[in-house]
Design goal:
single chain, 9 helices, 15% strand, extended
């Protein structure tokens, strides 16, 4: 209620100002004065105010840079991050230069020609030279920015080096799961048809295939039984029949996967490691992230490593980088013992998007190997 009253007061104040201006115009008209003509004094005041505005505007800009600059991201914690930062600085320099120059020129013209009434400005409908200048000049600048950006991106996205650590980042509303390749350095196969309450990532191994086929059989049985509780041939019955048909199609596809086990090694998933809450990576070793989504488009965003890649349902995306600063070293650099690297979702994916994050621990290879050895393997976790 208080907010509504505040809005009403603001609206009434605006209406009052408009009415006062209208009264002022009518008063000038009745006195035989032309309100369009501006006196030299008014012109001087307006031009001076523009100059003061420019000074205050730039002062505010400088204040924001000085005040909030230290709160920007610290130095990049990955090998390619320095190149990304240089690219960003290059763009900011160009943008800032154009921003400052155009405002200075605009204010200069307002001040310089404020009282000029003669000669009257010439109205020009077209000028080939001007058209050429303001078309070619921005095109050259944009070409430089784009070529520089593509070159930087290509270097960051070059083919992953041999010996890279393979980690899958699996997104769903509203959390992340990390999956590590085991001793075989190969991530196991996965399929959305295998997703269940006990297998949220849809991983495939021989044990899970048998379990999933049993789940589909039970699903069909439950649906068939539910038909006895609805009107035969009615709308609900037809919906159940459609559902049964879909489940049977999915089961047939899983049976095809089961048949392929003779030629496809599904056991590579047995030694995969699944972790929640936080994941660890070793400093100085390249890490290749394979990124999937279960439901909607998410985005794996690791700002301190200058890394971001969309997680798109139905396809696999990837990004790799080499971390260069451990979590403990960054805490010491920032003087913040509570600092942590974080994985965020950088797409608005739903109501709890703001809370979709995962801690990243960068540590020495020895500490990483010790942590990894303590994690349960996928097949072992099933057996227990």
């Amino acid at each position: 209620m208080t907010s509504l009253l505040i809005y009403l007061v603001i609206i009434l104040a605006i209406v009052a100002v408009v009415q006062i201006l209208r009264v002022f115009e009518l008063s000038n008209f009745l006195n035989g004065e032309d309100g369009i003509n501006v006196t030299d004094r008014e012109t001087n005041n307006i031009s001076l105010m523009w100059v003061l505005f420019l000074i205050a505007y730039f002062a505010g800009f400088i204040y924001l840079v000085v005040r909030f600059g230290p709160h920007l991201l610290p130095e990049a914690a990955s090998e390619h991050g320095a190149a990304i930062d240089t690219l960003m600085d290059f763009n900011l320099i160009i943008i800032t230069a154009v921003f400052v120059l155009t405002h200075i020129v605009m204010i200069y013209f307002v001040y310089r020609y404020a009282k000029t009434r003669s000669p009257k400005a010439t109205y020009v409908t077209h000028n080939n030279k001007l058209e050429f200048i303001w078309t070619i000049a921005p095109a050259i600048v944009l070409a430089i920015i784009i070529i520089y950006g593509i070159n930087t991106w290509n270097k960051a996205m070059r083919e992953k080096p041999n010996g890279a650590l393979n980690i899958e980042l699996y997104a769903r509303q509203f959390d992340w799961t990390a999956r590590y390749a085991g001793q075989d350095t190969t991530l196991g196969h996965a399929n959305f048809l295998m997703i269940s309450g006990t297998n949220p990532l849809g991983l495939i191994n021989n044990q899970r295939l048998d379990e999933r086929l049993g789940e589909y059989d039970q699903w069909v049985s439950d649906l068939e039984e539910s038909r006895g509780k609805v009107y035969p041939g009615g709308k609900t019955d037809r919906e159940i029949l459609d559902k049964i048909s879909t489940v049977k199609k999915h089961k047939a596809l899983v049976e095809q996967m089961k048949a392929q086990s003779a030629v496809k090694d599904y056991s590579v998933a047995d030694d995969d490691i699944i972790v929640k809450g936080e994941f660890h990576i070793p400093v100085g070793k390249p890490v290749n992230f394979q990124i999937r989504s279960q439901d909607v488009i998410h985005s794996a965003y690791m700002p301190h490593f200058r890394a971001q890649m969309n997680a798109v349902p139905g396809m696999m995306t990837s990004f790799y980088f080499t971390p260069t600063i451990t979590s403990e070293e960054m805490r010491n650099k920032l003087g913040n013992p509570e600092f942590d690297y974080l994985l965020y979702c950088n797409k608005i994916c739903g109501a709890a998007h703001y809370n979709m994050q995962m801690k990243i621990i960068v540590e020495t290879e020895e500490a990483y190997n010790q942590w990894l050895a303590e994690q349960k393997k996928f097949y072992t976790a099933d057996a227990q």
